[in-house]
Amino acid sequence: MKTIGKVCLGAAAGLALAGCSQGFSAAERETIRSGGEGIMRVLTVDDRSDSLTLRRKSAPMVEGMERADDYETLRRRMLATVQDPENTGVGIAAPQVGILRRMIAVQRFDKPGEPFEIYLNPKIIEYSAETAPGREGCLSIPDRSGEVKRAQRITLRYRDEQFAERLERISGFTAVIFQHEIDHLDGILYTDRMERELRQEE
Prior knowledge:
Blueprint: H1 11-15, H2 26-33, H3 48-54, H4 69-82, E1 91-93, E2 103-107, E3 116-127, E4 131-138, E5 141-151, E6 153-159, E7 165-171, H5 172-185, E8 199-200
Antiparallel strand pairs: 1-2, 2-3, 3-6, 4-5, 5-8, 6-7
């Protein structure tokens, strides 16, 4: 958002956890590692293959994946991508960089310092009845924005980066970001929820 497997098992797994993929497929590992340590390529609706990927539902993160080297690389590169000075966002979902896993990064405007934080298997379990329209953009839909009506408060259940389950109530603009990013995990784009015509930004 802009302005706005299988697990390693057996005795061998215990010997070298750092080298274990912990559920990432070979194709996922290739995507995570491609292009070095910098920003990742953001999939966009302007490319047909990318667009089809963005419409797919993501698989859950499996316990143990958060301890793998590939996870740390993905985490670091997603954060670098969403904070790229040439194309800055306030949130990003793993499918946007070609990894169909339920993992998002969100800027917490409701916390001191407005940090980016990582959320695994996030699920909104309650939406407020109160909604409000707001203009949204998306790193995967370049140079466009549109108005979307979103709940103003949500209750979020997720796994943190130690895979502990958490429950949190979030409101305001940060709640909107979560709704936008979690939609990506189900193949939903903000344009699917728009009530007004998409506009080309100046």
